[in-house]
Amino acid sequence: MLVSAAVCPCPPLLVPAVAAGAASELDAARAACAAALGVLAAARPDRLVVVAPAEREGRGPYPEGAAGSFRGFGVDAEVVLGAGAADRTAPGPAERELPVSLAVAAWLLEHVHWSAAPVTGLGVGESLTVEECVRAGADITGGPERVALLVMGDASACRTLKAPGYLDERAAGFDAGVARALAAADVAALKALDEELATELKAAGRAPWQVLAGAAQGAGLGGELLYEDAPYGVGYLVATWS
C-alpha cells in the first residue's frame, strides 16, 4: 500500500556540480525536494520506489546499488541508488547505468543522507499510455508492504521563448493544471492528463505522474504543493502526498 509520495523535477541542473556557477539559481528547488524527502522518511515506509522518465534503453527496474553518473554533462561525478550500496562506485560489467532522471534522484537521496528504507528505481517510457502507467502504479503498491514513491519528472519545457521547446501558449495552463492536481492529490485529474498535449509540450513528468495516480488509488492521501516555478522556461513542481 502507498503510505506517502513525493514529486520532484529531474533536471541535471539540480546537481550543483552540473550547474556550476548557476547552482544557486535552483537552491529553492533543492530545498523543496529535501523537504519532500523528509515527508517520505517520516512515513516510515518498508520500501522506497523511485519512478522516473526514461528512454527505451533506460526502462525497467533498477536495484539498490545501481550506479549512474553525470559524465555526459562534462562532470566526473558518480551516484549510487540507495543507502545500502555505499561501497559501490561503478556498475558491474553486466549492469546498466542509471538514466539521467534516476541519477538525479540518486543524488537527491544522497544529499539528504537517505536511510529510511531500501530503494529501487523504475524507469518508465514517456510513450506509455495512461492505462499502462496506472497499471504499473497499482502493481507497485498492490501488496501489504508500506511503499513510498519518489516521482521524478518535469512539467512543460515551453514556457518562454528561450525554453528548450520554445514558447507554447498552452504550456502555462497545462502546468497550472498539474500543480492543482498535485496540490489536491487529485488522482482523477492526473489520469486525465492529455498524453498528446504533454508530448507536444515536452512534459517528461506525464507518465511518472500517471504511475503515481495508479499507485495512489484508494490510498486516501492528501497533497501539498511545496514549489512551483519555471526557471529556464521549464516547469518544475515539488509536492508531497501523505
Structural overview:
This protein is α/β, with parallel strands linked by helices and 242 residues long. The chain has a single domain (2-241), classed as 3-Layer(aba) Sandwich (Protocatechuate 4,5-dioxygenase, Chain B). The chain contains 8 helices and 9 strands. Strands 3-6-2-7-1-9-8 form a 7-stranded mixed beta sheet, sandwiched between helices. Helix 4 (130-140) packs across helix 8 (206-216). The longest helix has 16 residues, at 27-42. The two termini are 12 Å apart. Residues 85-94 have low confidence and may be disordered.
Total helical segments: 8
Assigned CATH superfamily: LigB-like
Name the poorly predicted regions.
85-94
Structural class: alpha/beta
Q: What's the CATH C level?
A: Alpha Beta
CATH fold-type name: Protocatechuate 4,5-dioxygenase, Chain B
Strand portion, in percent?
15-25%
Strand order of the largest sheet: 3-6-2-7-1-9-8
Largest pleated sheet: 7 strands, mixed
CATH architecture: 3-Layer(aba) Sandwich
Mean pLDDT: 93
Distance linking N and C termini? 12 Å
Shape: globular
